[in-house]
Write a structure and sequence with these properties.
The complex is a heterodimer of chains A (496) and B (203). Helices cover 30% and strands 22% of the residues of chain A. Chain A is α+β, with helices and mostly antiparallel strands. In chain A, helix 3 packs parallel to helix 5. The longest helix of chain A is centred in the C-terminal third of the chain and has 37 residues. Chain A is rod-shaped and about 125 Å long. Chain B has 203 residues and is α+β, with helices and mostly antiparallel strands. Helix content of chain B is 50%, strand content 16%. The mean pLDDT of chain B is 87. Classes of the chains: A alpha+beta (496), B alpha+beta (203). At the A-B interface, strand 17, helix 7, strand 18, helix 8 and strand 20 of A face strand 1, helix 2, strand 4, strand 6 and helix 4 of B.
Chain lengths: 496, 203
């Protein structure tokens, strides 16, 4: 790897930088001009090979985590590190499949290809990170309870960057490094966890211009960007650990060395932001398939109390809700399932039968909730939000009020003569009441009946006119409502 | 799924031989309906449709299942042809062919998948969805209002018919009176007219 860019000059970095090389390890490179090291002290903290560190990447809210596998100084006296990456679950979200990662789980990069490791400037280290391996692999020393508790992250699997799969087996080497280096250390091996080197008692000094973000090399970033191209197109979601990690970054910010972004990565970032927004919209776009309630079968087993009583009780208890704008062909069971899927409430539902005087479009149902609170919350939810049904119906809910049950003795349109006035007539009327007959045209009754039939026809015409008008209004609004958009489950690539 | 499809088809058959009766007095009972229609067809089942939320004082309605779709058609045309009285007059009963949605126990449509979705206030379609909701409310209010108007109309018609009936009754009573005390006969003799003994009475 060549470093064409001039390194940050000493003047730029300033003499206050808190840095010291540790033990030498050997030399490498074509001209033997690369000096490898075992350790270094940076900002009062001693880092060893195979320590895990947080790295700051400009433009990324999240830090990256990697394992130091090489520490060296170039001919130009540039301090470099090589890292094997740990992926966060959302970095590999597209490949997770059925795997349910923990919030503090990482995946060690593996496989032969770009994305396993990168070279980085030593200054981009934020701080140490403790990562514990919980693999049951024989080569892996079992971590203690305390170690696990203290660890920032753990990993159990690797992620093959070439095949895009999660593997719980560990190969002998990862990026040319013995796999033992990635497992937990044995007690006798020297550990440097959060060790502040005693010799280093100089005060920490924040150097704002320690590294110039604009001039710092891009070769590493380029490499990483290639990896990130597929990582970044995955919409990231905020996880539980989000705030926690962010806090760390804020803490560390004054001392971090920034890595500039290449235009390519910037572009990717923009794309990612777009996708993220898309994702936000999509998470709300949950289309629910109404399925049978878990106890669906039971509903058919028992004969229940008559509806009249149940409804009366419900009204008294305030658990009765009237749903409107359902499909009139829904059955009561379907309404119960629907309420279950939408509100997670077990209810008893009864469709109101369609009658010739009522609208063909609007289906209504009386729904009995278990408690008054549940009923009120349902009404609140259905008013505040909108529950859309497949056919462009929006369910509306009001408190259910039953008709006054008091039965009227007299029926409008049935005439009874003053009985006391005429005994014989009275007798005949009683006979008439108990029987049914067709009216004959030579009677007064026939004339009056015709007047009623006329009234029926008039009512019909009124209803038809009203429903026709209503239907037109419904269609006007519905044509504006993009049902296909609301119910689309399109993939990200499809334009909406 | 097959059995539910069969169930659905069987139910459709049942609907086709069922007649929907409305504008019935609350005094009409199942036995009244059975007696009334027995002369035309075998009544298999009678089911009154409860009125839970409609305006009170609504007439009764019922689904009457007959032995065949053909019989159902016959009854429909009979009731359409002549004003049919049940437990009172002169307001006739009305009959219509039944449809699926009139049954509260209709089976689930085979293979129907209901999809629902919550719209949050942040959704671009939320305002429109709200408009639909408001429209539903408005339409329900319109229906309620028209119901009220038509009921008032019915009351008016009934009142007017009652008045007419009273006048008729008075007239017939007077005629009966003059027949009973032979006034009519005396007058007929005087004017040399023939008087029949029997008068057509109301009903």
């Amino acid at each position: 790897m060549s470093h064409s860019r001039p390194p940050p000059s000493e003047a730029n970095v300033g003499k206050m930088i808190d840095f010291k090389w540790g033990d030498k390890r050997g030399v490498g490179g074509k001209n033997k001009d690369i000096q490898y090291y075992e350790s270094f002290v940076y900002e009062g903290v001693q880092y060893f090979l195979y320590d895990c560190v947080y790295l700051y990447t400009a433009g990324h809210v999240e830090t990256s985590i990697g394992k130091l596998v090489k520490i060296f100084e170039t001919r130009n006296r540039q301090k470099m590190i090589k890292l094997v990456w740990f992926f966060r679950p959302f970095d590999i979200r597209n490949w997770l499949g059925q795997y349910k990662p923990c919030w503090n789980e990482l995946f060690l990069a593996s496989g032969e290809g770009k994305g396993v490791s990168n070279f980085n400037y030593l200054e981009s280290i934020i701080r140490k990170c403790s990562v514990i391996c919980t693999s049951k692999d024989k080569r892996n020393p079992k971590p203690s309870e305390i170690e696990l508790k203290k660890a920032d992250y753990f990993f159990n699997c690797t992620f093959d960057v070439v095949r895009g799969v999660i593997i719980d087996q560990f190969t002998n080497e990862i990026d040319g490094i013995r796999v033992e280096r990635f497992f937990n250390r044995n007690g006798d091996e020297k550990t440097s966890n959060h060790l502040h080197v005693g010799t280093d008692i100089r005060p920490k000094i924040v150097i704002k211009t320690r590294t110039n973000p604009c001039t710092i090399s891009h070769c590493q970033v380029n490499d990483k960007a290639k990896v990130r191209t597929y990582e970044n197109v995955l919409p990231k979601q905020s996880s539980d650990s989000y705030t926690y990690k962010k806090r760390k970054i804020v803490e560390e910010k004054p001392t971090i060395g920034q890595i500039s972004k290449t235009p390519k990565e910037q572009e990717i970032d923009e794309k990612k932001a777009e996708l993220r927004q898309d994702e936000r919209v999509k998470t709300n776009k949950k289309v629910i398939d109404v399925i049978e309630r878990p106890d669906a079968e039971k509903r058919r087993w028992f004969k229940k109390m008559p509806w009249d009583e149940r409804l009366q009780t419900a009204q008294k208890m305030g658990t009765l809700v009237l749903l409107n704008n359902l499909d009139p062909s829904y059955t009561s069971f379907e309404v119960e399932d629907l309420v279950w899927c939408a509100l997670k409430a077990r209810v008893e539902a009864r469709m109101i039968e369609w009658s010739p005087g009522s609208s063909k479009y609007y289906g209504r149902a009386l729904v009995i909730f278990k408690t008054k609170d549940a009923a009120e919350s349902a009404i609140y939810q259905l008013n505040k939000r909108c529950l859309v049904l497949g056919e462009g119906r929006i369910v509306s809910a009001i408190k259910g009020t039953l008709r006054e049950p008091g039965k009227k003795k007299r029926f409008t349109g049935h005439l009874v003569l003053d009985r006391a006035a005429h005994q014989r007539q009275h007798q005949e009327m009683r006979n008439a009441v108990s029987t049914s007959h067709c009216s004959q045209p030579n009677t007064i009754e026939y004339g009056m009946a015709t007047e009623w039939i006329l009234h029926y026809e008039k009512s019909n015409a009124c209803w038809n006119a009203l429903y026709e008008k209503q239907m037109k209004e419904i269609q006007d609004v519905r044509s504006k409502l993009k049902m296909d958009r609301i119910f689309s489950v399109e993939s990200l690539s499809n334009p909406t | 799924m097959e059995s539910s499809a069969e169930k659905y088809a069987a139910f459709k058959q049942k609907v086709s031989r069922t007649v929907y009766l409305d504008n019935m007095s609350p005094q009409v009972t199942e036995s009244v309906i059975r007696t009334a229609l027995d002369q035309f067809a075998t009544v298999k089942n009678v089911k009154f449709i409860p009125n839970y939320i409609g305006p009170s004082n609504q007439p009764q309605c019922a689904l009457v299942e007959l032995d065949s779709a053909k019989k159902a058609k016959e009854i429909l045309s009979m009731i359409a042809g002549y004003p049919f009285m049940m437990s009172g007059q002169p307001r006739p009963v009305r009959a219509r062919p039944a449809v699926m949605e009139m049954f509260d126990d209709q089976p689930i449509k085979p293979n129907r998948k209901i999809k629902i979705r919550w719209l949050e206030p942040s959704d671009p379609d939320f305002e429109l969805a709200k408009e639909v909701k408001n429209l539903t409310r408005k339409h329900a209010a319109e229906v309620e209002f028209l119901d009220k108007l038509l009921l008032e109309d019915e009351e008016k018609l009934a009142k007017q018919q009652e008045e007419t009936l009273k006048v008729h009754y008075k007239k017939f009573k007077m005629i009966e009176g003059i027949m009973a005390d032979k006034t009519a006969h005396r007058l007929a003799r005087k004017y040399n007219l023939h008087v029949a003994d029997d008068w057509a009475r109301l009903d």
